[in-house]
Amino acid sequence: MNINELRLRFLKLDTPAVSDAMDSFGLYGALGGITTRVPGVILAGPVFTVQYQNLDHDGSTFHNAGNYIDEVPAEHVILVDNQGRSDCTNWGGILTEMAQLKGIAGSVVYGAARDISEIGLMSYPLFSTAVNMVSGKNRVHVTALKQDVKVGDVTVRNGDWLIGDDNGVLVIPADRLLDVLTRAENVERTEKQIREAIRGGMPLVEARKRFRYDQPWIAENSSVASHSYEKVKA
Fold first, then answer.
1. Which residues fall in a coiled-coil region (predicted)?
2. Is pLDDT at 150 greater than 90 in this prediction?
3. What is the spatial distance between Cα 234 and Cα 218, in angstroms, rounded to a whole number?
4. Which pLDDT band, with edges at 50, 70 and 90, does 227 fall under?
5. Which residue would you say has higher pLDDT here, 208 or 130?
6. 137-152: string of b/e by CB count within 10 Å (b at 16+)?
């Protein structure tokens, strides 16, 4: 299955369903403090990591913050690691426009971003820990690409996938991607069955029991109709 096919399946899900699926495998992937800057967008794709470090600068020469974007493949998600630094930015409008032209899936910044209104008009999936108008030029510089990084206590390895929406961002280990995807789809299916059942009059406690809310990834298809509680009781 290629990247585009996987992305299309993930884009139909939400992060709570993916998180529940990861729980079933004993996996934890929530990137703490990462918040959407463009509400309503969904992010999914393999990660391309970018590491920044502070720059000792005496003001005598100009240092660009980073021109790495030319190396990022289409349909990938850029993860910028600036150790959560909030006093200068690592993402803005020009990078966003270039990312869209290249077909990049979105950006997650462990640090600050700017040009938020402009990026919102582009409907570009952008997530960060902070917002600041101060440029990263002459303050930080890129030191590594495609290396493992840590966001808080969570390690993100090159090739892992990032999934994000209004609830936050999750990292899925590359070697568990299909397992998590399949279970997340089952979780989504189970929750849909529960919602349909309670709309038909079934008490929530019974609906959760009937459709295995305790293990929603099982996704056992009940032959009992859930459109009407009276029909279920019969």
1. none
2. yes
3. 25
4. very low
5. 130
6. bbbbbbeeebeebebe
Burial 189-207 (b: 16+ CB within 10 A, else e): bbbebbeebbebebeeeeb
pLDDT in tens, 60-71: 666 666 789 999
Interatomic CA distance for residues 50 and 66, integer angstroms: 9
> Which residues are CB-contacts of 182 (< 8 A; sequence separation ≥ 6)?
21
Stated pTM of the model: 0.85
For the chain, domains (ranges, CATH) are 28-172 (3.50.30.40), 180-233 (no CATH)
The total of other beta-carbon atoms located within 10 Å of residue 94's CB is 11
Contact of 207 with 197, CB cutoff 8 Å: yes
**Residues 6 or more apart in contact with residue 223 via CB below 8 angstroms:** none
Assign 147 to helix, strand or coil: coil
Size (the chain), residues:
234
Mean pLDDT of 116-143: 94
Residues 6+ apart with CB under 8 A from 68: 50, 142, 145
End-to-end C-alpha distance for the chain, whole angstroms: 44
Give the phi and the psi of residue 87 in degrees, each rounded to 5: -90, -5
Rounded to a whole number of angstroms, the CA Rg of the chain reads 21
How many other C-beta atoms can be found within 10 angstroms of the C-beta atom of residue 108? 28
Number of Cβ within a 10 Å radius of residue 121: 12
